[in-house]
Every structure is written in C-alpha cells, then in structure tokens.
C-alpha cells in the first residue's frame, strides 16, 4: 500500500502525514459507513498525548461530520481502549491517532473495524484512492451534516472493563508504573488503585513533547532503577499508546514479551485454560523460550514479526495467547488487540495465583544471547532487496550454522532495517551481524 503500513498511516507530522490526509480519511470513512449505506455513521476517535494528535483529531472530526457521520471523541486513551469501545459501544468503526513508540515529531492514524480488529485492507485501499483523488465523496448538507459528541464516558467504561477483568486483589503489592508520558497516563494508575495496589508512578505528566522521551518500554532502564531504589515488588512500562508492556521483576531485571508469554502460558496451561496447549510467538522469540515450552509440553506456532501475523494465526486456529518480544501480547479470549495494561494485569494474576515472585516464575527460561542492530536506511525496500544484503544474510546464517540464527527484516513503521542474531555467545552474535551491517553501509541514511 502507498500510505497504510502494518500499523496504520504513519509519518512525521505535517510532512509524511499531514492534516489534509487526516481530513480526507475522515471524509471517506464518514461517507463509507454512513451515506453509502444510507445510514448515520457513528465513529469513535481516540488519541495519544503528542502535540500533533490534537491537530489531527480536529481534521478527522471535520472530515467525518462533513460527510455526515457523528464523531464520538474519547480524547486521550490507549489504542486498545478504542478497539474495546468500538465493540462495547456498537460503533461502525474506530480511529486512533498515535505513532505508538515513535518520537513525538511523528504521528499516525490507525483504523479499527466494527469487530475491534485492524481495518480490512480493501477499505484501506479505497481510502488511498480517495486521498489520491481517484474517487469522489459527496459532502453532507442540511440536517445530514454530522455532530461531535464528547464521549469521556467511553474511557471510563474501558477503565471499568480492565478492573472487572481482574478477579484478584493487589492489596499490599508495591507496583511501579512507567506511563511513557503517553496514553496510559490517565488510565493505568486508576486501574491498579482500584485493585488495592500500592502504586508508584513515573512519567505520567505528558506535555505534548515528552511522550516516549527517555521513558516507557523503549527505555526500560529507568523503571529498573526505580523498582530497585524504591523496593517495589514489580514494575510495568508501557509505550506511547499503551498497547505494549514490558515488566521489571523485584530485582530490577527486565521481563520482556518472551518471558511474559512464558509466565502467562505456563499459568494458563497449568490450570487447563490454554486452548489447544499452544502459544503463538514470532520467529524473533528467543530459543530459550521454545525450549522452556518444550519442557512443559506446551506447543508453539511461530509467525512472522508483526502483531497482525500473530493475530491472524490466533484467530484462524482459535488460540488465545500470542505476542512479540517487544511486549505486544494478545489475550484472544478477552480482547481484540494487544493491551499493555491488560498484559500487566494478566502477569499479576499469575504472580498472585502462584504465590511466587516474578523472578521465580521467569527462572526456568534460559535465554540465548541476542544482538539487535537497527540500521537507518534511505529506502528499506531497496535495502532489503539488494543482492549483497541477501547474500550477507545467508553468509551470517552459514557462519552460525546450527548454533544460532540470523534474521534481517524491515521495520513496519520506520525507515529501518533490523538485524538480529542469536547464538551461544554475544561475540558470535556480533560477528554474525557484521556480515549484514557491512552490506548495508551503502544504503544507510
């Protein structure tokens, strides 16, 4: 697609993605779900805390009402909150304004269908045609013009849903939360407060520019230090739109998505709740995770990197647990998308039920060393298709042989090529990556 990638339409605000794009998306969506179907469309909109989100919200709303739709504004809310409210409120579709873990200078527009899942590609293709002036959409007139609705109650219902999903108390548990100065800032603490936890929060004062800046799941070291310094039992760090979560155990050690999959998978398996005894990780998950699952008799079906591939595999096969090392975890029996706060609650459910610390629950996983290099490139498609890069990847794989593996993939949201090697030692990982890094030098930005 020209505009929409794996995680929506994303770019630098008013450069790669501008207000005219947002207005046109609103115009098309408002018409597509409204006059085209001879009905009044109801569209729900949420946003994260970056400065440009307010601008894009206004442009989207203007487009929606101009096409005859009613726009329900959730204001600042995590991405999964929009997915939840689309279904709970019986809306025609949902829109989330966010660039997730990217810098505040970026932004993005994600579309969600009426089932709470990512928008169907055929609809996105038509939106792109409209953006490029290949389609015409009529303006609403008279009493057909839409209205805006302040829908803060929707965010409150989402918070209540998170609280109701927890059938345990956190009384006496000292929990640290890093809200990344993002969408979790207004949601995470009320949830843990309601469950009785002794909550300690950092990075929950968004100012439009500090989202993801040296905080949140992309800078987990801050929470690690905070947990140890304040003698907390556990910590959770979210990204800008709070669809991801990484944890920190009581010793300050990071618990990434692989370990979260293990802790939750083991717990569900033990109590007969893991459907088909299968977990869905990606090919980037650590060898140690696979071996730990083998020891428990838990099966796993790996997918390509990207939550949409994990989603597709889970839905097609009826699995209920899958996710990525980055902390994007999906609990398919209770949600339509990854939800960082829900992930934190599910980890705490396992911790409370097993009456063990998080470090003890993670201990059986013996991880292989990994090295990930993110290489900024001018054109990721060109770099990924270059013969010398493809040959270098094969050289790295031959170098490691059966002792490890090497993956080269393009970022779904940024002009980056990611090079990951996994081997018995860090030095072997570094040497394997060097094959590819040398080949990428002429394509670097």
Description of the molecule:
This protein is of the alpha/beta class and 445 residues long. It is 38% helix and 19% strand. The protein contains 15 helices and 19 strands. The chain has helices at residues 19-32, 51-66, 79-88, 121-131, 152-164, 188-194, 221-229, 257-270, 287-296, 307-317, 340-354, 358-362, 380-385, 387-400, 426-440; strands spanning 4-5, 8-12, 42-47, 70-76, 93-97, 106-112, 148-150, 174-178, 198-202, 234-238, 245-248, 254-255, 278-279, 299-300, 321-323, 329-331, 370-376, 405-410, 416-422. Strands 1-2-6-5-3-4-7 form a seven-stranded mixed sheet, sandwiched between helices. Helix 6 (188-194) links the parallel strand 8 (174-178) and strand 9. Helix 8 packs parallel to helix 9 (287-296). The protein is globular. The protein starts with a strand and ends in a 5-residue tail after the last helix.
Summary, kept brief:
With 445 residues, the chain is an alpha/beta fold. The chain is 38% helix and 19% strand. The chain has a seven-stranded mixed sheet, sandwiched between helices.
